[in-house]
């Protein structure tokens, strides 16, 4: 048993345990931290599989951005999980049944006989004498440049549409006008009032 296999079993064990902790711990902040550990351990497994791009994307996008944002949101909201956990045992049999059905479907889709077989197809990055990230970048920006640009345009349009839907005027809500805020002057906000000083007369005995 070489070091890579030992590392794989170690990272896989940490991934499974941290994933179980995400759905079992009561504190939502601890759950988010366990999910960060799950993603990081999964990225280590991707590195062992020589999929450097997937590992880097998982760490930078999910661990470095999405999960940190979730952590700050959960900490600021101070969610009370007691009402949310009421009646959890009532839905547990249905959840277990759904999980078993999903597992059976995945096994039927992949095939039980595939579990003991090794992948014999050659690695295109290794055949080209490049790293996984270098080969993926070259293939993406040469052979698939048009689908990549179309995906970028679609995402840009989706972002603009989401912003426009968010900025709709609704009754009963307060809105800010950035243009008027930038054009504001000191005289419009601060007014100096001059008053004559009055000397208090002392009471004479």
UniProtKB/TrEMBL annotation:
A Pfam short name: Oxidored_q3
Alphabetical keyword list: Cell membrane, Membrane, NAD, Quinone, Transmembrane, Transmembrane helix
Primary subcellular site in the record, as a coarse category: membrane
GO terms of molecular function: NADH dehydrogenase (ubiquinone) activity; quinone binding
GO cellular component, as recorded: plasma membrane
Protein location: Cell membrane
EC number: 7.1.1.-
InterPro entries documented for this protein: NADH_UbQ/plastoQ_OxRdtase_su6, Nuo/plastoQ_OxRdtase_6_NuoJ
Enzyme class: translocase
Membrane topology: Multi-pass membrane protein
Superkingdom field: Bacteria
Catalysed reactions, as listed in the record: a quinone + NADH + 5 H(+)(in) = a quinol + NAD(+) + 4 H(+)(out)
TM spans (from-to): 6-23, 30-49, 55-79, 91-112, 144-167
Alphabetized PANTHER family for the sequence: NADH-UBIQUINONE OXIDOREDUCTASE CHAIN 6
Subunit architecture: Composed of 13 different subunits. Subunits NuoA, H, J, K, L, M, N constitute the membrane sector of the complex.
NCBIfam families: PRK06638.1-4
Function summary: NDH-1 shuttles electrons from NADH, via FMN and iron-sulfur (Fe-S) centers, to quinones in the respiratory chain. Couples the redox reaction to proton translocation (for every two electrons transferred, four hydrogen ions are translocated across the cytoplasmic membrane), and thus conserves the redox energy in a proton gradient.
Family: Belongs to the complex I subunit 6 family.
Annotated protein name in UniProt: NADH-quinone oxidoreductase subunit J
Record lineage: Bacteria, Pseudomonadati, Pseudomonadota, Gammaproteobacteria, Lysobacterales
